[in-house]
Amino acid sequence: MKEWITGRNPVYECLRSQRRHFFQLLIARGAEESTRLSEIQELANQLRLPVNRVEKTELIAVHEHHQGVALQVSEYPYVDIAEIFKKAEKKTEPLFMLLLDQVQDPQNFGTLIRSAELFGVHGILIPPDRAVGVTPAVVSASSGASEHLLIAQGNLAQAIDKIKTRNAWVIGLDMDIHSQPLDKVDLSGAVALVVGSEGGGLRRLVREKCDLIAHIPTTGLLDSLNAAVAGSIALYAASLKRKQTENKK
C-alpha cells in the first residue's frame, strides 16, 4: 500500500532513514527555498528518486498542510519485538521500552514517538487494534521521528511477559491511591514504561501485568496530565537516571 508523507521535516527524515520504499517526490512550483528543501532534493538525487514540480493545488489535494513537498512511500515497516531486544543488546545498554495501551490520538502518539527517539528508547510497542498506528498524521506529529524508531505491534500482556525475561521492570503510569511517586522509583536499569489511553488509562490485564504503578507528582489544581505529556516526562526521568548510572561506572 502506498501513502503520502508531507511536510519538510517528515519528508526529510523519511528519506534519511531509508526504511521505506520511495515512489515519487512532489515539490510545489515556487516553493520557498530553504536549507531543508535543498537537503530533501539532494537526498532524492542520491536515491535516484523522481522529482516532479507541480502546482500547489496538486499538493493541497494530497494534504492541506504540505509545506510545498509530498513524498509517496510504502506503508510503515513495523518490526518484531525481538528486533527491539536485539537493538538494546547491540548497544550494550539496559533495555528501554515504551508501551502504549490503546493510545488513539495521532498527536499524542506522535509526541510520544518524538520524545522516545530523543531520550534513547530502543523501541515502542502498540496493540494491533483499538489504537492509532503509524499513519502519515502520526509521522507528521512526530516530525519524522517515527522513521528512526523501531515500533512493533502485538498483545501488550503477552509482550510484558517477554520483556520481564529480559530482567526489565515494567512500570505503568497512572494516578491512584496505590501508585508510587515516579521520583521514588528506580529507573536506572532495564525498564519498560506503559502509558494508558487518553480516556480509560491502563486496561485491567495490562495493569495487573505491571511490576508497579507510578504517578508524576503535581502541585497544581488539575488532577492529571495529558497522556503524551506524562509519558514524555517519565521518559526524560528514566533517561536521566540511566545516564547518571552510566556515568558512575
CATH architecture call of the largest domain: 3-Layer(aba) Sandwich
What's the CATH topology label of the largest domain? Alpha/beta knot
Q: Kindly provide the name of the CATH class of the largest domain.
A: Alpha Beta
Neighbour order of strands in the largest sheet: 7-6-5-10-8-11-9
Topology pattern, helix = H, strand = E: EHEHEHEHEHEHEHEEEHEH
Measured on Cα atoms, how large is the radius of gyration?
Answer: 20 Å
Domains (count): 2
- Annotation field: number of helices: 9
Number of strands: 11
Mean pLDDT: 93
Q: Give helix % range.
A: 25-40%
Q: What is the rounded distance between the termini?
A: 47 Å
Beta-strand content bin: 15-25%
Unreliable runs: none
Based on helices, strands and strand pairing, what is the structural class? alpha/beta
What's the arrangement of secondary structure elements?
Blueprint: E1 2-6, H1 8-17, E2 22-28, H2 35-46, E3 51-54, H3 56-62, E4 69-74, H4 81-90, E5 96-101, H5 106-118, E6 123-126, H6 136-141, E7 151-153, H7 156-164, E8 169-173, E9 180-181, E10 191-196, H8 204-209, E11 212-215, H9 227-248
Parallel strand pairs: 2-3, 5-6, 5-10, 6-7, 8-10, 8-11, 9-11
Antiparallel strand pairs: 1-4, 2-4
Helix pairs in contact: 1-2, 5-9
